[in-house]
């Protein structure tokens, strides 16, 4: 039986020398790999009482939507600034070089709702930290944050201290 990591393609020296890029397109392009990835991530929340699944643009959508569908829960997208059509709440966060801003609709999360946040990868944790702040500012309770992959060497989990964080695959490096 194959494991999810067997479907992940590792590309050395991309985007720069010394970095091993973990490519999920190889997971998505294989029906068995995709099903195993979604099922493995969904298994991380199987015993939780949740009301809403939140996914960050764009690969959080890929995994968050089927999980929400399977659990018969609503899905809420967190998008890059300027992509959502109704009233939004925004949060700016730092990147390695510069900053970025994400938004959520102000009516997407109701006070007291239990939320799981989904993304494909945790690296430095900045995007998810900003998503957590958006959910909480709307009154939601983040009960778990799940990822397909974690790059432990970038210490993103440290930015999410106090939250239940889980990943299907954990790579030691960057």
TrEMBL record:
GO terms for molecular function: adenine binding; adenine phosphoribosyltransferase activity; AMP binding. One of its GO terms (biological process) is AMP salvage. One of its GO terms (cellular component) is cytoplasm. Pfam families: Pribosyltran. Its EC number is 2.4.2.7. Gene3D superfamilies: 3.40.50.2020. Keywords: Cytoplasm, Glycosyltransferase, Purine salvage, Transferase. Coiled coil: none annotated. InterPro entries: Ade_phspho_trans, PRTase-like, PRTase_dom, UPRTase/APRTase. Homodimer. Belongs to the purine/pyrimidine phosphoribosyltransferase family. Catalyzes a salvage reaction resulting in the formation of AMP, that is energically less costly than de novo synthesis. This is Adenine phosphoribosyltransferase. It comes from Lactonifactor longoviformis DSM 17459. The lineage of its organism: Bacteria, Bacillati, Bacillota, Clostridia, Eubacteriales. The gene is apt.
